[in-house]
Amino acid sequence: MPYGGGEATGHNPPPYGEPPLVMLATLLLQVLAQAPVPSDWQNQFLFPESFTAAAGAPLRLALGRRNSGKIEPWEAMAWPKQELRYAFLQVDGQQVNRDRLSPATGSDSWVSLPLLRSGVAQIGMDFQPKDVALSAARWRSFWKLSLNGLEGWAWPHRKPIRLRWQRSHKCLVRATDADGRVGPAAAAQAKSGQWLQIRALADPTVLPKGADLPLRLYMGEVPGGQTRVVVHQPDGSRLLLRPRPGGLAHFRIGQAGLYAIEAHQLAPSSEPGLDGWWFTATLTFEVQG
Is 70 exceeded by the pLDDT of residue 72? Predict the structure, then answer.
C-alpha cells in the first residue's frame, strides 16, 4: 500500500533550485516512499507447476509470490535451499520425508519431487527460523494488508522491527493414474505433522462453488500469540479471517481457480534485540471449474 507525504520544513527552497543530483535523489526517494514495497518475505506460497499431474512422474515445485490482477497468477522466486528443514509428500496413506530436494534442470527457482501414486497429494515444506528486520514503512504496509490491524502490533516507531520468522508451506495436487482418474483424497484433509499448518477439513479440490471450506489452524500455541488469515481468491480479491477459539475458521468457495491462503501469528519475545516471533503457514490449491 502506498505511503507518502511528509512534514513541512518551514523554509523556502534556494532561489536557483537544488543541484541536479540532489534533485534526482530527492525525486527517487519520493517515488520509493509512495510505491508499494515488494519483498522476498511477504506473501510467499508453495506452487506446483500444475495442480493436476501424472502419478509416478516428477513434479516441479517453486516458492512464489501471488500476482493479484496479473496475467500470470504468481511468479517464482530463487529457491532458498540452505533454509529448508525438510519436505514431505503425503498421498493415499503414505508419507515420504526428505531433507533436501533435487533442483529442476536449468533453474534456480524450481525443485523436483516425484509423485508416488494417484490421489490427492499433500506436499509441504518447513524452513529454518530466520531473523528479519523490517523498516517501519514495510511493516505498516504488511500490518494493514495481511494482519488486518492486529492489536498491539501497529509499531508506531520509526526504527525497524526485528522478528524471528518461522514458516511452513503446503499445497494440494491431484495426481492422476494412467486413465486420468484421481485416487483417494484423504490426504487433502489429513494433519501434516508440521508445527505450523493450515489444515483443510474438506477436500477443496472437489468442492462446488457456493460450498464452505472449514479450516483448522495449528500455529505453535505460543502464549500471547494472535493470528490472522488472508485468503487470496482467483480473481485477485482477498478475504480476511479471524480464527475462532481452537484455530477454527471457514470461508465460502465463490470461484473456480487458484486459492492461496496465508496465516500469520505474532507473539512477543523476551529475548534482547528481538521484538517478537512471527509464524507463517500457507496452503495453495485449485478449485475445479
Answer: no
Query: Which amino acid, 176?
Result: T
Read off the CATH number of the domain in which 122 is found. Answer: 2.60.40.10
Cell of 194: 508440521
Residue 257 scores a pLDDT above 50: yes
Q: Cα–Cα distance between 236 and 9 in angstroms, integer?
A: 40
> DSSP secondary-structure letter at 5?
-
pLDDT at 161: 87
Strands 111-114 and 58-66, sheet pairing = antiparallel
- AA identity, residue 278: W
Q: Which domain holds residue 223?
A: 44-287
How is residue 129 written as a grid cell? 527460523
Task: Note whether residue 146 is domain-resident.
Answer: yes
Single pTM value for the model: 0.81
DSSP-derived 3-state class of residue 243: coil
Element (H, E) at 96: strand 94-98
